[in-house]
Design goal:
Strand order of the largest sheet: 2-3-1-4
Distance between the termini: 98 Å
Number of helices: 3
Helix content: 10-25%
Structural class: alpha+beta
Strand content: 15-25%
Largest sheet: 4 strands, antiparallel
Amino acid sequence: MKKFSWLILIIVLLTACNGGSSTPAPVDTGPRPTPTVEVVPPPSPTPSPDAYPVAPAPTPLPDNYPPPPTPAPPTSPYPTGEFVWLLLPVGTQGEETKTYDDLQTAVQALASAGVAVKTAGMTDLVVCAAVGCPTSAHYRVEIDVAGLETAAALGWVEE
């Protein structure tokens, strides 16, 4: 207990002495001039040789300047005599019936309707995986644009 008392006494003395310095700080009582600061604008940045050029200001158009012509809308995305690719799903998911038994039957159905087929083949597309969605396998044919309406009536759609 005696050692503990000495420790407390040393702590109290050090705290009371405040580190051994007891002289107060001098008080400034004299007049002080108001400092003034000269405001200098920052220098304008000089662009480096690698910097983008400054965009020019747009030139205003005169009052009598004619408006730009409006282009005519295209009548067909395919010019006459060109070919277009069409797609038809092989079947529907969840149903066992197919649109056509095979690619040859699909091409023959178009030919019997008067649509000339240039190229025919099969393709796989990304489709939803749910009952009622088309299968990923699709018939793909290239026909003349003239037969587009007839093929659309048979269920074919443009690719």
